[in-house]
Amino acid sequence: MDTPQKQSVTQIGTPISKSKFEDSPVFNYINSLSPIRPVKSIPIPHPFSSLNFTSPPSVFTSPHLTSSHKESRFFKTHNSSSHPTNPVESRDDSNSNEEVVAEEAEATIDASRGDEASTEMELSQISKCGRSSSDDPVASSCGGDTTVLSLVPYTPRGENCSPEVAGIGMQKMYDNVQPKNQTPDWESLISDASELLIFNSPNDSEAFRCLMMQRASTSEARFCSGAGMTNNEPKSSDAIPYEAASILHRGVRRRCLDFEMPGNKQTMSENNTTANELSSSRCVVPSIGLHLNAIAMSSKDCKTNVTHDYSGKIQVGLQGSSSTMQETLDQTENETREDAYQDLEDVLTEPALAELNLSSPKKKRLKLGAGEGESCKRCNCKKSKCLKLYCECFAAGVYCIEPCSCVDCFNKPIHEDTVLATRKQIESRNPLAFAPKVIRSSDSVQETGDDASKTPASARHKRGCNCKKSNCLKKYCECYQGGVGCSINCRCEGCKNKFGRKDGSCIDMETELEEENETSKKSRTAKPQQNTEDLVSKETSSALPMTPMPIYRQQLVQVPFSSSKNMMPPPQSLLGAGSSSGIYNSQYLRNPDISMTQSWNEKSFETVAEDRAEEMPEIIVHSPIANIKTLSPNSKRVTPPHLDSSRRSGGRKLILQSIPSFPSLTHQN
DNA sequence: GAGTTTGAAACT
DNA sequence: CAGTTTCAAACTC
Question: Where are the stretches annotated Disordered (predicted)?
Fold first, then answer.
């Protein structure tokens, strides 16, 4: 397909190419179909000037800003779809262009008028994105321009959304349209859109696909290609959009936390958010737990709320956790849900959630079923005063609450200062002490197609385990517990980790089953309850690329660093870690003492084009960890995963680029 | 529920 | 950095 557009692949993003682009027959055709006029390339001098959300310390020009903006737009757009008079929007007052875009987005969503229009808008936005980046470096984050969607192509150092990449994206979309002028392949187009556009979470992406597909087939609303709705789908076609929207909004809600933390709390309430939504949103916050001042206060003043929040957090978390879903999944064959959950699971890379998910199904369920203390890990510390990493609660960044059986617990709001001080101390010793232990990398993609593809979990334990006797087959093993395979970083002996062995070999399902059987024979032959391994196995298998994962998911890379088990990598949608990002941010934004850490983390989540991926097959490679390695007393453990060039995927891929250095917490004060 | 095992965390 | 101790979760009975 030699189209005029193709020629300007590398030029797109420049005014000239843009002009050509808009002059193309296809573009004109699309334009003619849309009641909405494409927004002309209005230069955006300072896209962020009007933003008022809480920003990281000025010392860092965190990319998060851009994404924050992006996310805020995302939030605004979708939210406003149901609440046209969204206050948030009014907050973004200074940028008329953005508003125009937002309005377009709303129109696109609300009017449900035409697929063409939607796509057109996307295209125009993408093009604008590319343009803006070339026009104004400050606006390079394309988040400033993108409304519903964020452009995937992020490049580090303010080169986000490079014209070239954007152009490519647009070109690709065009390529799909071009050949089928009269009857564009919306599905593929949407698929591409999903692929090209990054969402703050896989859920969003999925939801987006669903929504788009629904639009694409107005009469066949139940078609949700990505979700793979089945005919047995009990839900009516009407429910689908709702579900999609729900997923979408869920992510949005989570995401909104990013911006509301300290100063923007008002935003949420202003947002016409329903009580439920608000609750949900809030629920997420606590999960970060950590020693969130807000929580502390809440616990003091309104304990009921706290409890509610806590439990809410858990519930919310579990909504996306395969663990909880597991049972559901076991009973239902609803692919849609499964898919959605898989997406969510992808997001749940961090150990805390992983624990809820993959690790200790038995215990966690027990805990989770405890009602009030659901969110609490119910530690049982006797001597550590819950001020050491031994304490799960502390390690997870949450206060101990009643369900805990700890003794002399200091991990409580009333000892907030102590907790924070201790935490800071620990972090000073090992900046990654509270970082997620399990890293879910883009390997899900990379591994696909090669030997490692058999590895169920596209993740690795940050430092690797050190198992000697458990053969990495018990939850003593952090890798196993996290549902990930052992890696070269592990110093385990006799590794038999079914999620992936240290030596790189992987146990296929059959072998896996055999080993499980053996294990079962060994200890508990006929336990009524599903044994841990079974559960983990199932959960993991659900996460396995049994069926090809949507490209958009494969392309996402998740980053490791966040500061607590419960915290996920920064928002950058690129990570697809919507929920946790919110959590993460919440915690740190609320905690001035560690805000630096946050900004650091944010900075560490820059994305780069695939070519760069080659340089760092695993995010962590170039991540602060590498730098921190020298800082950490446990340097021997905090080693960067080895590079495995063979694990590159052929497709486009974005990975997160780490930041150059990690601001020491000790320098904060 | 008590006791044992295990490996991470902390310490020297 | 290696070895040891402490600790609490995981596990077993």
Answer: 1-22, 44-118, 515-536, 631-669
